[in-house]
Amino acid sequence: MKPKIKNGIIVLIKFILIFVILLGIYFAIMTLTSLIPSGMLENNVRESSETLVQEGEKVTFDLKYKEENIFTFTDALMINTAYSIDNNHPIESFILARKNYIPGQTTEFYPDGQYNLGANENYISKENGDLYQTKELYGLMHGDNIQDSYEYARYWHGYLSILRPLLLLFNYSGIRIVLAIITLISIVALITLLCKKISITSGVIYGIGLLAISIFIVTKSINEILIFIVAFISSIILLLKKNPEKNIGIFFFVVGSVSNFIDLLTAPLVTLGITAITYFLLIQRNESKVNIKRYILDFLKICISWALGYGITWLSKWVITEIFFGRPIISQAIEQAVFRSNGPQINGMNIFSLSNVFIRNMEYLSSPVAITILIAAVIYIIVMMIINRNKKIDFKENLKKCLPYILIFFLPVIWYMVLKQHSYTHVNFTYRILVISIISLLIIASKILVSKNMEDSKK
């Protein structure tokens, strides 16, 4: 057998074993946390429903220069799903991911629909068909005899392994505080390691990027913040590794898989983009010679590994649900994926185009923030030109070093192109993946005018 073929088979076996181990871990933690009786969560879930119904389906934060919207109806759905777990049938419960389920009270069951999750008729708007998840949760926890339960089996709902233990100790307000603290600790640890292992500039750049997407507003949403925490932890692990290049394909495969397990398709791309930027900063730290071929191959390896981890994990959930629980989830999930990509059509034409999706997401970033970032980049370039005015700058060499970040810069554009309907409809959180482009752009600006002497002094 040829060495390349043999090595390829070994790598394939490694990926398969890693995936089997991951599935085992997912089943173990989901089963263990599903064994917690929902009665132990009841008081905190009831208090959470009271907070959520007061806030409504959406909370608006006025930041003066723009408004940030957090759609709390998804958090209400997540808490409803957490409470609806039946500890007597833990595996069935977390696989089917029902809401409004109360043993002895529930009489009607509705499988996961093609597009939108259903709701009790008392919580559906007769004017526009909108679902009121916060009111439904409140009604469930305050004596409404809701007898119909709805499944949301297309996702893994891995957040339940975090949310259910948290609901043992805290209500919704308390969970928000806990997640804000975890986020703050993660960001401080990430920026500190960046400053220590890469440069102070890189730490500042990450901070600017995260502030640009209002990261601490994101902590108000359980649905949105968890995927960012995954991104921060992934980058921290890379920064702590003795050899970040070792098994990098497997590492990003795991990151992609965990992203799909935890997330409800909010902004999973940040776990790829932010972690990939961290990786390239690390490998460039000690390299003696620029290697464009290596950059391109590493970029492709990272993206393909992440996409495989994300995609296969999602597909495995559909297969398990269909084979063992008889739900026709695979065909529905594929139809949903096509719809999320293109959206509805009028006269055979797609409503959404890449240009209007991209413009809409850029608008949510807000012009003051974009202008401030641009000014910061320009000021940095001017300062570097002054500092290096008498030094030789190899623009061609520096541009080569920028190649990974140029490639990463366009990842959000590709995401918007693939998921046009989703990125347009859910712009309030899909715009946040632009943090990848912001950080990449600022890193490009920081590298393009650096002299060889300055590079040497950093090592």
How would you describe this structure to a colleague?
Helix 18 packs antiparallel against helix 22 (435-448). The chain has 459 residues and is mainly alpha-helical. A hairpin with a 2-residue loop joins strand 6 and strand 7. The strands form three sheets. The protein has a three-stranded mixed beta sheet with strand order 3-5-4. The chain has a two-stranded antiparallel ribbon with strand order 1-2. A two-stranded antiparallel sheet has the order 6-7. 68% of the residues lie in helices and 5% in strands. The mean pLDDT is 89. It has helices at residues 3-34, 42-55, 73-83, 90-96, 133-141, 160-169, 172-197, 200-212, 215-218, 222-240, 248-262, 269-285, 292-325, 329-342, 354-365, 367-387, 395-401, 403-409, 411-418, 420-425, 427-430, 435-448, 452-458, and strands spanning 59-62, 67-70, 98-99, 108-110, 148-151, 345-346, 349-350. The protein folds into two domains: 3-160, no CATH class; 174-458, no CATH class.
